[in-house]
Amino acid sequence: MSNNNLPTWEVFIQPKTGASFEHAGNVHASDKEMALQNARELYTRRQEGTCIWVVKTEDIVSSNPEDQQSFFDPADDKLYRYPTFFKVSKKAKGL
Amino acid sequence: MGHFLPSNHSSKANTLTMSAVQETAFQEKIDAELKIEAKDWMPDKYRLHLIRQISQHAHSEVIGMQPEGNWITRAPSLRSKMVLIAKVQDEAGHGLYLYSATETLGITRSELIEQLQMGKAKYSSIFNYPTLTWADMGAIGWLVDGAAIVNQQSLRRTSYGPYSRAMIRICKEESFHQRQGYEIMSKMSNGTTEQQEMAQDALNRWWWPSLMMFGPADSESAHTSNAMKWKIKRGTNDDLRQLFIDRTVKQAELIGLEIPDPDLKWNPKTKHYDFGEIDWEEFWEVVNGNGFCNKERINNHIKARSEGQWVREAALAYSEKKQNGV
Amino acid sequence: MSKELLFKYVLTLGDDALILGQRLSQWVYKGPFLEEDIALSNISLDMFGRANLFLEYAASLKGSTTTADDLAFKRNEREFSNHILCEQPNGNFANTMARQFFLDAFYKLFFEKLAESEDEQLSAIAQKSIKETTYHFRHSSKWVIRLGDGTAESHEKMQSAIDNLWMFTDELFEMNEVDNNMLTQKIGVDCLTIKAKWDQIIDEVLSEATLKRPENIHMTSGGREGIHTEHLGHLLSDMQYLQRAYPDAEW
Ligand SMILES: [Fe+2]
Ligand SMILES: [Fe+2]
Questions:
Q1: ipTM of predicted assembly, 2 dp
Q2: Domain ranges of chain C
Q3: Given Cys at both, which of B41, B279, B288, C17 links C51, Cβ 3.0 to 4.6 Å?
Q4: Which class does domain C3-213+220-245 fall in?
Q5: In contact, C136 and C40? CB cutoff 8 Å
Q6: A33 CB within 8 Å of a chain C CB
């Protein structure tokens, strides 16, 4: 007999209005509405959120650990992207 | 580019030398207190150890709903009923957080549940003891959750990212569990003679099994060394057990209950409590299935799951119909 | 006299929530999957929270030293005035969802009206309850649809759950002496006026669920007057055990 595992959905919670959504974990559910309800029951019992996103786990695309160097290291010599790279007179205000 | 989670249990394609290099890098990462994530390379044994440990932990949360669930309908006040339901519900949530963490290792919840129901995966033996009086709700919250918290707090620093995150979430929720148990115990030990007797009796029955929750002595424990090297475990069984005892003794004194151990006494040299011999024979008996409630717990689990089969099938069938526009 | 009637009115609302909460709490770890265990516990918690509010209010109307717990744990079957539907056993998941669906649809409409009550306490509790009930209805109606339109087996189970519980639904809309008095005082709800809307909601969901609305069913009632099915006594003896066995103890 099959165990009919319900598909998994990844859950993202927005802790308060205006904040970024954070990954909370997963839930099992057969459809979107159930996924949303289950996420609500599981991850917001203590008012942890103001909004929930659910997305089927299989629909999420991830970079691989092997990609880490080629993806992220090329940014390590581009210090001009940070405000501290620039020397500005202390007298110049509002920068 | 790739999938969010690993799709199989391990990548068998690695040559031996390749994995030796990877293993060194892996251990260096661990030693540097960096977290391992789901898609990172990890030794098969690390993965298997995690699956065993996290799922055992998840099963414990889930089976642990039964002894307390046994008293929900009989809770003696509206307040205590709501508190107990919320507590047991949290345990279901903990089970889910942990199943979720285990699933990142490339195994499904169904597979894990099958292992539990076939007896291949274990759960904490403490839940094979019966809950006989309302005071047992106090003893479980105070002692069993208390012992679990000691263990879980240490596991927040475990090396596997998803496990560590689950533990952080769980520890936040656990904080009321122990308090509600202690509150029941202190109310009863300050109550009628009958209530006092129930409270003491519950402590007598749950004390030793609670100490056993930390597992065999370090000298006997088969899994400890690798688990410590890989920083899956962050404290040894004996150290955590001692920490729990040191914390609990004063709490018992405060509500006038006596810990059932004549050898228990403060040792000024070690700055810890010395305690009596744990009955490891009893421990192994229960681990090996001969506890009071082993069969009942698993049978209940099997019954609930098989009675839910048609519901899950229906939900899947419905969503398929909707996707196909029927 | 009027206070006595208000007490009875509030008591019924408390009893409904209490008995339904107790039934739902029996699911604990027995749901079809873990997420659903948590969902059922949540609804049960909402019910006990609601019961607590209504029974505290009722206790304050009763006066002297009566507490909400006294009302919950120290009355017998004949003194409980909940609707019979609430006490019906959980049965299988379809039975529980059918019971919940009928009641959620009813309470959604009922509390919207009660929120307009001139009794401030009742109005406040009603406003809180609307939020909960809106969610409960979303949960139960969706399950009725999934099970009704799921597999042949689930369809059959869902249909028979609807058929078997239908006989208890008319009681929800009966107006007794207490209700009529409360209505004239602008405290209570006119249940007759919400019946049509309830019928419409039920029909919509049943039709989406490919289920049939039962016909020619003999209706049963009596709960408001303390005439219950035999199930209630067993539920109470379980729930009240500790308070009855140790009357001097405090928990
Ligand atoms: Fe837990
Ligand atoms: Fe806990």
A1: 0.97
A2: 3-213+220-245
A3: C17
A4: mainly alpha
A5: no
A6: yes
